[in-house]
Amino acid sequence: MKRGLAQCVLALLGCALLLPCGDVFGASRVVPDGTEIFVRTDTQISIGNSRPGDVFPARIDEDVYVDDHMMMRRGDPAEIRLVRMREDTDELAFRLHTVTVKGRKYDVKSDTAREVARRESQDSSGLGTGGKALLGAAGGAAIGGAVGGKKGALIGAASGAGGGLIWAGASGRDAKVPAGTALEFTLREEIILRK
Question: What share of the chain is helix, strand, coil (3-state, %, to 5)?
């Protein structure tokens, strides 16, 4: 009897030693501020028919890892929110609003979206659809009205390192963000994931 119990204990210890420490003792489930999260829009978004505060469906476009632990999977649901850059301006941008991980929805605070162009092919908007190439402030300003037509509705990055995609409210009435558009956000506050 004692020998059998000892063998069971040794077997359990052996299994524990084979597992990563994080899995044994509970890996940190904090996604820190500064983490970059890539998402892809689920539907076409008409800037002109939307108002600040409107929320749109999206999906996580790349697995998110922290210290070799996967925190979010590609395909996890997300939401982006159209926001006014400041109270005294009509400039609009997207922020990451929520992410859903293992069925739980979490509120998110992020910077404004940055467009992720694609190198391999070009769609009708003039942005690629292949390998990722982040458009920074200069790139955002250069593509002008590429997202949303030819009227220059997209005015590029007005401020901040790397800059975000910003639409002027008046000129953005014809702007459309196609379904499947890849956007990058940087967290401005940590997300604590519940197990």
Answer: 15, 40, 45
Total domains in the chain come to 1
- Work out the burial of residue 10: count CB atoms within 10 Å of its CB; fewer than 13 is exposed, 13-18 middle, 19 or more buried: exposed
Decide: 28 and 69 in contact? Cβ < 8 Å: yes
> Residue 16 falls within a domain, yes or no?
no
Q: How far apart are CA 23 and CA 40, in angstroms?
A: 30
More confident residue, 5 or 161: 5
CB 90 within 8 A of CB 84: yes
- Whichever domain contains 47, its CATH number is 2.40.128.260
Q: Could you tell me which residues come within 8 angstroms of residue 53 by beta carbon, excluding any fewer than 6 positions away?
A: 81, 82, 83
DSSP letter assigned to residue 33: T
For 106, the token pair is 């979490």
For 7, 68, 72, 119, 122, the CA distances from 63, given in Å and listed in that order, are 40, 11, 6, 20, 25
Average pLDDT, the chain: 72
d(CA 119, CA 67): 29
pLDDT in tens, 121-163: 344 443 333 344 443 333 333 223 334 343 334 444 333 334 4
State the number of CA atoms in the 13 A half-sphere of 129 facing the CB. 10
Compute the chain's Rg from CA coordinates. Answer: 21
